[in-house]
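To: structure desk
From: M.T.
Subject: fold request, one chain
Message: Could you run this one when you get a chance? Sequence is below, nothing fancy, just the single chain.
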Amino acid sequence: MLQQVIDRRLSGKNKSIGNRERFLHRYRKQIRDAVRKAVSGRSIHNIEQGEDITLPRRDVSEPVFGHGAGGTEERVYNGNQEYVRGDHIARPPSGGGSGPGNGASQDGSSEDDFEFRITRDEFMQYFFDDLALPHLLRTQLLPDAPEWKTHRAGFISEGTPTNLHVVRSMRKALSRRIAMGGDARRHLRGLELLLAAMLQDVSTTHGEIVALKGEIEALRLRLRQIPFLDPFDLRYRNRVRVPLPVSKAVMFCLMDVSGSMNEARKDMAKRFFILLYLFLMRHYEKTDVIFIRHHTQAAEVTEDEFFHSTESGGTVASSALVLMNQIIQERYASSEWNIYGAQASDGDNWQHDSPKCRALLVDKLLPASRYFAYLQVAEESQNLWEEYSMVQKSHPNFAMQKISDASEIYPVFRELFKKGAPA
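Reply: Done. Structure tokens follow.
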């Protein structure tokens, strides 16, 4: 019966999915660098769109093989009206070719760079390619929807042909043949020695020799009837599924919305948190995001309120840290959750409150957290920055950065959440 397989995957006209995937894999580094350059000119609102990527021609050039100088060469030229068979054609001068890789021609023209478009998903994949939540661990087994991993668990006597272990099966067959024919072979060797002695003994009758040969032949037949490979010998690789603990994580986003945070600073903080939110939603399925806004008081808010509310006031940064600690105690046990925190502020805090923030971090939050990042959206050093600087010196799971312009958001974000950082 003739079977046909129809590929109904969506693919653009005259495009090959396989060739495209091979191209993206081959020039991964160049495309990733081009994506990073493209991001610097985007606003946060269109970060998830596709992009026209331009790669230098030299980065995607392929080796070209040609004939060297000298030798005899035969070619067929289409539309020839000048030469006939037997004419000798002079070689062009060295370096006069105009093939790929020769740079600009004599008239000043040159080849364009290679340009192609990547999709939204491909753009986000390359943008977040080398980022990760630091120190993420698998902490808990979920009974309702566990993750499974297949492990080898020895060998079994029944299974599918694809799991057949040939060496183990042949070893088992050899052991069986040795065990089943051991006594018979020893008896056969004894009879063969006896036959050799009887043939040299002149007193041995012909009938005795015939009888002994018949017994020897019967033993040999018995040994030949032992099967070389029996279904009992077959051994199959055994694989079992075991549940894996999942990497449950929670990210606390703490944003200062006090009066000292003008619109430009709030906009930079919001852009940073939008980028963080996109990163988490794309790479980590089992991740909770807690949004906390604070001025003199802190409150847990929804995603929409976090990015769009216009509430403002004085500055007591410790209120956000206290609320974060309360939520951890009530809902997120550190033994079951990977706890992360990201705080954005201009650093202008009440003078007597900044030491309290440092104490909360050192005594409460950092011991329970995998990683905590502080972003100051102002260039000048404030009292909160000075207190946090002392925390950074003694706690490797704490990192801090400054930005004063929107163009610095992406490099700083990558620095805070690159794989392996902080050490």
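Reply (cont.): The radius of gyration is 38 Å. Let me know if you need anything else for the meeting.
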